Amino acid sequence: MDKVTVPLIAQKKQSGQKIIAITAYDFPFAKLIDEAGIDVILVGDTVGIVVQGEESTLPVTLDQMLYHTKMVSRAAKRALVVGDMPFLSYQVDIERTVENAGRFLKEGGAAAVKLEGGATVADRIEALTRFDIPVMAHIGLTPQSVHRMGGYKIQGRKGQQARDLLNDAKTVESAGAFSLVLEGIPAPLAKKITESVQIPTIGIGAGKNCDGQVMVLHDLLGLFTRFQPKFVRRYADLTPIISDAFRQFKSDVETGKFPTEEESYPS
Ligand code: KIV
After folding, report:
1. If you ran DSSP here, which 8-state letter would residue 104 be given?
2. Does residue 1 surpass a pLDDT of 90?
């Protein structure tokens, strides 16, 4: 299978093929995702919530993101690896944005970065694109804005908010973003945005009319159980399976069933 590239992602929209993306944060899962033929592996700052146990993505650092991006890149033979820029790694100024984003490509082995925001980050997207750092934009329910939004709330339900999001989508496209994540917005608005821009939209909680879909790994596998958003479909329910394995191991050691002679080295 051919390597997935930034231009290939753009072409997929033109040829009407859906773009499939899953988040990953380590080598073993990234390898399985890559081997399953998934187009994009997003090293998301959701690592803060689903791996680190934080309440939000805000505490995640650039060094942590680079650490996870390196592991994922080592495993991804075909998929496009996108590194997610954490809070405060692109908000301060353009110079630091370019330097920090560049580290995802230089040290992390990613092919692109993702950052949250619309018109407000257009100058960042423009600068990164100019220096050949491809950008996946991300608008709607942007988790790094949790405090402004007053929680993880669906965005774009009201007329002006919807118009602002449509304007954001067009602005990030003009700034050079090669794709656009639409998170937590009404399905009809996602459809309208998707029809209004040339770049592919990748939805999460944005209905079926986006050009692709992204899902958080731990949601997809039933490994994140603190809460289940409406848009999450668990394709596997691994929590009880893993839990059973741990309990079985404990019981087998306690009752002398593990290890057996076959599982031991003779002298
Ligand atoms: O960090 C992340 O995993 C994301 C996806 C939810 C799109 O931004």
Report:
1. H
2. no
- Residue 24 Cβ inside 6 Å of ligand 1? The answer reads no
In the chain, the DSSP E strands lie at 19-23, 40-43, 80-84, 112-116, 135-140, 179-183, 201-204, 212-215
Q: Which amino acid is at 171?
A: T
- Does the annotation count 183 as an active-site position? yes
Structure token digits, residue 152: 């993880």
d(CA 44, CA 181): 12
The tokens for 220 are 């997809």
Radius of gyration of the chain, Cα coordinates, nearest whole angstrom: 20
Residue 160, phi-psi category: left (phi > 0), alpha (psi -120 to 50), beta (remainder): alpha
Catalytic residue among 183, 254, 262, 263: 183
For residues 162 and 193, give the distance between their C-alpha atoms in angstroms, rounded to a whole number.
10
Read out DSSP for 167-210?
Answer: HHHHHHHHHT-SEEEEES--HHHHHHHHHH-SSPEEEESS-TTS
Q: Is the pTM of this model over 0.85?
A: yes
Contact assessment for residue 202 and residue 211, using Cβ atoms and an 8 Å cutoff: yes
Report whether 239 contacts 222 (CB < 8 A).
Answer: yes
> With a 6 A CB cut-off, is 46 part of the ligand 1 pocket?
yes
The fourth-level CATH superfamily of domain 6-237 is Phosphoenolpyruvate-binding domains (3.20.20.60)
> Percentage of the chain with pLDDT > 90?
99
**Per-residue model confidence as pLDDT tens digits over 35-80:** 999 999 999 999 999 999 999 999 999 999 999 999 999 999 999 9
